[in-house]
Predict the structure.
Amino acid sequence: MTKPCLPPDPATRKPGYKAPAKSCDSHSHIFEDFSRFPLSPNRSFTPPEAPVSSLLQMLDILGIERGVVVHSSAYGTDTRASLAAVKSAPDRLRGVAVTGADTPRELIETLNRAGFCGTRLSTVVKGTPGFEALEKIASNVKPFNWHIAVHIDKSSELVDLAPRLLATGNDIVIDHIARVRSDEGVKAPGYQSLLELLASGRCWVKLSALHRCSSLEYPWADMRPLIDGVISARPDRVLWGTDWPHVNQYDSMQNDGDLLDAFATWVNDEATRHKILVENPAELYRF
């Protein structure tokens, strides 16, 4: 049995910061109609129902026009729920899949036509492949120019993974700033590996779920040195996301309006904000 996660705060606060036109939330998940799209029995958590309609409503309140649905491990490699979500709003949404070494090419083609452009691997949760089959999975999606989304449990894992990721030839997206904790700081080996990946020009990094790595409350100011470092290194390769509906949280729940306002406190320059919210995701996710 898995413990049910808290639902997202339904009273999304309108943020003080006004995002520019065509801004993108580059990291969210959906959990749609469990009778139609049943959860995998091999999962690490039980999410609340969080349908695409609620995601779009939250984005509307934030003033965010675009979003990326990252397929959740709670569905395993059954991508039907995420595919239906992305197809329901093709002008607004793109997708990141979860595929295995044996995923048929025909399914990847179907996902690609619908607006999917990456596949995710994880060492954090059951249901998503780890990196044992990285090379095969990367090879499967490379003809479609898909990236590899990297979801790791500890930042130190990136040290050994980085050379393998680069060797695939695929673009790379590092979720949640590689889970480098604030108390690890910029000298952490995993963070240094992240900077090396960014220097390649083929790596992107998400400013998402940073509260999970912070020792402070909103706006999680102790994460600033890590944020500043990646922006200084490659402002053209940084993305932002809410991580809605914030699964694997059981005690407290942040408000998504606060997440956008926190971003505005981390990034003071409007031109850089525009890169992170608009230009960078438009390039990576093919809007």
Remarks:
- The chain has one domain: 24-285.
